[in-house]
């Protein structure tokens, strides 16, 4: 079974690779800035058109940042392209994931279940080692990124759910810190300007655009894992930084 207990209890030796073992031990000490429950208590002060009576669990989701070692020892992350038949974000690049369901014990369980449903990734191949801080989607979902490591990537035989996924591919995680293939798009939310990150990626499977929430999550994951800031700088905050700043101001006023 996948290791979904607290990271400090996971057996890093099960990962085989020395690099993955070191990464697992490093991430054991990562703590998100604020517990998600504490933040959710006050989200309605920032997103004031969401009724406080809404069950917060119904607005919670999780995604799986599934990492493995490439042929040259580099860390790579599994991504999908959403089906064009989906009502929400058709054709967009995404991490495996989705909304929490009643039977999910926690965000790790949600991420693993969704990965199995979307791409056929058996949870027994994944060792969950950390969770990042929550991210807020444009649909007002609190999204928790779950970092999982796969040491036996050769045992993963993708089985795509055609109703949800059109393609699966992988990219080097480090690309989300580099200037190459990166650009900004300026947008506005309730009078506040922010930037959206775009990364262009080309492989034998075609050309892919990684942007928005997925790009922001992977920038953060790469920053935490490589312990350095991106080599690009924006003149404005991204959507996540803007939301956290507004929440911080609102909390201080309250």
Architecture overview:
- It is built from 6 helices and 11 strands.
- The strands form 2 sheets. Strands 1, 2, 3, 4, 5, 6, 7 and 8 form an 8-stranded mixed β-sheet that branches. A 3-stranded antiparallel β-sheet has the order 9-10-11.
- By secondary structure, the protein is of the alpha+beta class.
- The model is unreliable at about 5-10 and about 50-55 (pLDDT under 50).
- The termini are far apart.
Describe this protein with a few key phrases.
3-stranded antiparallel β-sheet; single chain; 11 strands; alpha+beta; 8-stranded mixed β-sheet; 254 residues; 6 helices
Mean pLDDT: 85
Oligomer: single chain
Distance between the termini: 44 Å
Could you estimate the helical fraction of the residues in percent? 10-25%
Question: How many alpha or pi helices?
Answer: 6
Largest sheet: 8 strands, mixed
Radius of gyration: 18 Å
The percentage of residues in β strands lies in 25-35%
- Written as H for each helix and E for each strand, in order along the chain, the element string is HHHEEEEHEEEEEEEHH
Shape field = globular
Low-confidence segments, given as residue ranges, are 4-9, 50-54
Per DSSP E runs of 2 or more residues, the count of β-strands stands at: 11
What structural category arises from helix and sheet content?
alpha+beta
